[in-house]
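INFO batch 0412 | record 1 of 1 | parsing
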Amino acid sequence: MNKKDRIAIVVSILYFLFPLAVLFEGSSDAPIAALVFMSPLIAYWGYRFIKNDISFLKNSAKDDL
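INFO prediction complete | emitting tokens
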């Protein structure tokens, strides 16, 4: 795991605490608000997954295509 991944994980965990707090608020719109607040986080990790830029998910064996 490289430094970029470690920083991204720490920032993601800290950012995840805000939507979690919104969920525990107890409002009727809390699940929707939490999903809206989590959408940048989902988009970021989705983008990195699609670009194969997550070092701890890379397979050590090369594909023979």
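INFO post-check: The chain has a mean pLDDT of 84.
INFO record closed
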